[in-house]
Amino acid sequence: MSEDVAASRPTAPPVCPRHPDRVSYVRCQRCGRPVCADCQRPAPVGVQCVDCVAQAAAAAPARRTVLGGTARPGLPVVTLTFLGLCVASYIVGLVNPAWVDQLAFNPVLGDSEPYRFVTAAFLHASTIHIASNLIALWFVGPYLEQALGRLRFATLYLLSAVGGQVGVVLLATATHSWTTWVVGASGAVFGLFGAIFFVMRRLGGNASGIIGVIVLNVVIGFVVPGIAWQAHAGGLVTGAVLGAAYAYAPKNQRRLVAVLVPVALAAAMFVAVRITYANFTLASL
């Protein structure tokens, strides 16, 4: 008489692949593997394992906003990052005043140290100065970040910041204002003002309120001494151009527009600045 040894041998209980020390008789409805209580995720029928849920999420198309940005619930990460950088930079400047000297902008130093076109936008001269700019940033930033998506919003903010310093170079009188220090996120904030006007119009919102805010801030720039209205103008124009391009780009051309327009705008600003510097150098000879 023969005996089936394999059949009489006890089989090992099924265990979770992610936690081999845990026995589980519940199986994933998608891949069929055992899944312990910690790895189970509710599914329309039964449960799925965390690996299958992650694979399904990665394969699913990203949800898009009306303007083509990736819809991301939760906190406005890019806006909060810019807010945090401004606050951190202001604190460092209070502790070490040399920080401001190393990063602030004026047209003369901008020629030899072009990084100042960006870094000056994260510096502020006083508590009132930084508070007013950050309140304005928080007022419009999350709305634009959600509508445009993180990458396009970050591009808008940074290019508007640069555009503010470009405005100073182009509009400041070379013989009187080129050694005047410029700091603050006003150029970037005005860029957001310019962009949100077109975004709101594109989405069917009432843009009259933002027009009032822009006009009021422009008037303040001319009336209150010590404000670089040139930076406001440069940032406003830059943001308006980008905002219009983002808002009205054809649906099937949004990615192309999101690359070409910022690159073309940055190139135009570079050429304009170089021509201005060349003319100033020739005039000073």
From TrEMBL:
EC numbers, comma separated: 3.4.21.-
Origin organism lineage: Bacteria, Bacillati, Actinomycetota, Actinomycetes, Micrococcales
Keywords: Hydrolase, Membrane, Protease, Transmembrane, Transmembrane helix
Keyword Transmembrane tagged: yes
Source species: Cellulomonas edaphi
GO biological process: proteolysis
Record GO terms (molecular function): peptidase activity
Chief subcellular location: membrane
Similarity comment text for this entry: Belongs to the peptidase S54 family.
InterPro entries (alphabetical): Peptidase_S54_rhomboid_dom (IPR022764), Rhomboid-like_sf (IPR035952), Rhomboid_protease_S54 (IPR050925)
Enzyme class: hydrolase
Name of the protein this chain belongs to: Rhomboid family intramembrane serine protease
Alphabetized Pfam families for the sequence: Rhomboid (PF01694)
Residues in Peptidase S54 rhomboid domain copies: 112-246
Cellular location(s): Membrane
Transmembrane segments: 73-95, 115-141, 153-172, 178-200, 207-225, 231-249, 256-277
Bilayer topology annotation: Multi-pass membrane protein
